[in-house]
Automatic annotation (TrEMBL):
Residues 198-214 have a biased composition (Basic and acidic residues). It comes from Alteromonas naphthalenivorans. Residues 191-214 are annotated as: Disordered. Coiled coil: none annotated. This is Segregation and condensation protein B. NCBIfam families: SMC-Scp complex subunit ScpB (TIGR00281). It holds the Pfam family SMC_ScpB. Keywords: Cell cycle, Cell division, Chromosome partition, Cytoplasm.
Length: 214
């Protein structure tokens, strides 16, 4: 195994994360671009922290999401950067976002439990879309008659919405004051505003990353 100078290591890590088509974890860096070198995990983390600081005042930032590290544009620049694309960002129905929010906040949860909270049936197309996008997956079956599937979010969901863990989801307690002033059946609508905001931001970031890779 060869040694590598800190300056070269920093360049290699920066380039690897930049050209990757998905977030890159420390383990993946060690198994791929750094496989020929002796690099302690602590040293690698230090280099990544230095890169993060280097990019803080710039238009592109190095951020950590669930699957690893990636470069993405600063949120505040999105109104202007969005003009680079003629097509509009994908829009998702309120029913889909309500379903996704329930899975995110109450996972693991069955389809029947989602329908019970929403008060309406969850269409098969919604569940199909969420699973095809790999935002949710079946993680088991509830031990009740019929053994319905239990759904939970995935690391792809976290990556897409620029989250490193579920703990970064807006705390439902923050909506308590607003929820008190509306009908209990509307409380869920307030809760769903948070994931909607994250959707817009993450979509824009994903578009920037896609254009950079091209």
């Amino acid at each position: 195994m060869k040694k590598i100078k800190t300056a070269q290591l920093k360049q290699l890590v920066e380039a690897a994360i930049f050209v990757a088509d998905a977030p890159v974890s420390i383990q993946r860096l060690r198994d791929t671009v750094l496989s020929d070198f002796t690099v302690a995990e602590r040293t690698l983390k230090t280099v990544i922290n230095e890169l993060t600081l280097d990019y803080q005042p710039r238009g592109i930032q190095l951020v950590k999401v669930a699957s690893g590290y990636r470069f993405q544009s600063v949120d505040a620049l999105s109104p202007w950067l969005s003009k680079l694309w003629q097509e509009t960002a994908p829009k998702y129905s309120r029913a889909m976002m309500e379903t996704l929010a329930l899975i995110a906040y109450r996972q693991p949860i069955t389809r029947g439990e989602i329908e019970q909270v929403r008060g309406v049936a969850v269409s098969s197309s919604i569940m199909k879309t969420l699973t095809e996008r790999e935002w949710v997956k079946v993680v088991g079956h509830k031990e009740v008659p019929g053994r319905p599937a239990l759904y939970a979010t995935t690391s792809t969901f976290l990556d897409y919405f620029s989250l490193s863990s579920l703990s970064e989801l807006p705390n439902s307690d923050a909506f308590d004051e607003m929820a008190k002033s509306i009908d209990s059946t509307s409380s869920l609508k307030v809760l769903n505003e948070a994931p909607s905001e994250v959707t817009d931001r993450a979509t824009e970031n994903k578009q920037i990353k896609s254009d950079t890779n091209d």
